[in-house]
Amino acid sequence: MNRAQMEDRLLTWRFELRRTLGLPGLLGAVLLGTAVLIAVATPRVDADVDSHELRDSERLARTPKARRADAERAAVVDAVSLHALPELFPGFGQSADDIATILAQARDSNLTLGSAEYLVSNDSSAHFVRYQMLLPVKDQYGVIRRFLALVLNSVPNAALREIHVERPTVDGNVLDARVRFELIYRAAQP
């Protein structure tokens, strides 16, 4: 078989494969063939022996004294972090500004708002004050979702506590939703 015959047969196979599989099927077959070649060509690594040796050497290198020192350092860092955590939150005096920001985000999103309910809870042993805001909204799903994202991105001490969504009519795209935000503030120091 000479070169011209070989080219003719390859061209015929290509046209037959393209006719039966289509262009996407042919490209998929080429990609699968390439993936099989790569999988066969990559060398197999015996990871079990190497990883066991590394674990054993690490275990031997760490003495009980070093582990105890690591635990003490971690305890000190945790204590400092817990002590500084309340200072990272704003004071309760900022609550009016945060609620104004949430309502402004709702107005900017053109949401239909109902009357909101507010609840302040303060645990005497806690370092935080929780301000809950239940806000009934009415609009399309995408608008409500965008509003939630805007609030959570613009008010860092806000958490989405609950969302309840109802569709009043089966064929309607306007949803009734009740959104409960929880705003967390630093408790006043006695």
UniProtKB/TrEMBL annotation:
Transmembrane intervals: 21-41
Key words, A-Z: Membrane, Transmembrane, Transmembrane helix
Protein name, UniProt field: Transmembrane protein
Organism, scientific name: Paraburkholderia podalyriae
Taxonomic lineage of the native organism: Bacteria, Pseudomonadati, Pseudomonadota, Betaproteobacteria, Burkholderiales
